[in-house]
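Could you show me just one protein sequence together with its fold in token form as a worked example?
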Amino acid sequence: MERIVIIGAGVGGLSAAAVLAAAGRDVTVLEAHVYPGGCAGTFYHQGYHFDAGATLAGGFYPGGPMDAVAQAAGISHWPARPETHAMNVHLPDGCRVAQYGGAERWTARRAAFGRQSDAFWQWQERTADALWDLALRAPAWPPQTGADAGNLLRHGLSWLAADPRRLAPALIADAFRPLSAHLKDASPRLRCFVDAQLLIAAQATSAQANALYGAAALDLPRRGIVHLKGGMGGIAQTLAAAVQQHGGRVLYRHEVQRIIMARGRPAAVETKRGQRFPADVVIANLPPWNVAALLGDDVRAVRGARSLRRLPPRPQDGWGAFMVYVGVDAGIASPAAPLHHQVIARQPLAEGNSIFLSLSPAWDSGRAPAGQRALTISTHTALEPWWELFTADRDAYEARKRAYTDRILETAEIALPGVRDAARLVLPGTPVTFQRFTRRAWGWVGGFPQTSLFRAWGPRLSPNLWLVGDSIFPGQSTAAAALGGLRVARAVAPASSRLLPARMLALRGGGAPECGAPGRRL
């Protein structure tokens, strides 16, 4: 039997592992940390369970990405509670926009942007329905082999047959133009709102984000979010348990330092402890820079790894994250208040001018000491300044970290007045911190900005060497990473394609269901 080794217990890697283990394959997951999830994990510190990076969980609706993974992996339920009030978005002019999953979203949008915005949102929802219908068919995009091209043609034809209007010239044009093409007559308030939402979901604003990707990225609140008991790490923990239930292994404190190749194919994976795991198939749940480093000189001999050989020394676009983890008094917000807020204090976006904050649910008392709640706050930040200061001027690095922490807490006061006085613990983190704890090179997070349909990497790096995570189609968010992991599992073990649920196929193309039951995350 083929020995499959998966590097990294992120959501993409664990999704692939769980589906392959359910199909009876020999699966071993090697994780450097002491818990699963990576950027979508939950860590423990001084009595608090903080979400490390990703805090917004979506894609759990019936027939959606997490539902498909659950059925393929034999997962009976997720530790999730659905929520129709996804978040509040606070704009610089003082306007607060509530993001809902139900019909009340139209009332909220009209109150904020006027009825003239309806045309934009109708385009967005119609386009998102079409793109998610295609993504849930798990097409081989971008195609890398003749079989991939056949797969893409087959799925594309069935997608078009479901609704011939998808051949409309406007939809085809959207494959090549930015989302801003649909905001030409929009108000500054609507543009600001859309740009801020796209930054957290597509890593680019409307002037750069591809229209199709952008429409799907804006759709997360409508498709319903969930809150996970114990934090975001509940997704990875559930997947890891499924791997083990089906006979696979998930080994923690096993940091991989080398992928050993033989005749252009993986032969083994070696850890920093000197342990060697023979491998016929290797699936790397890592950014491309990490994969190139693990291959070392062998990268030159890897057929199909041209993109790895062409990587610049550091990411030239994309983002890092500056995080502030805060332990706060439970009374900072009422138990019924929304748990997610995006706050835009000023332009330009990022660098503390715009933040995303998530508060642990009042009902999830295990997340914090008695009378407390766990709060995760993040802002997009450029990587290079942090690394330059860290290597050349450590005092300046620490001063910048303090200044960002103060700025972010000041901005958080807009959504949670009194948060600074209610704070009992304040723990900041920079891209340097992210590299140390998640092992992602340079602390680069969120994947490539979704500026083009052709930006995503193909998952097949060489025969039997695969990539999963936010660098492959369909891109960012835990739901997208899980769907990418399912796609790779089905490519590695074609017989597992039978695990694509018939119920999921039946639900395709039916629009966006309301926030649904477990079976299913940004």
Remarks:
- Residues 407 and 455 are 33 Å apart (CA to CA).
- The longest helix spans residues 394-412.
- The radius of gyration is 22 Å.
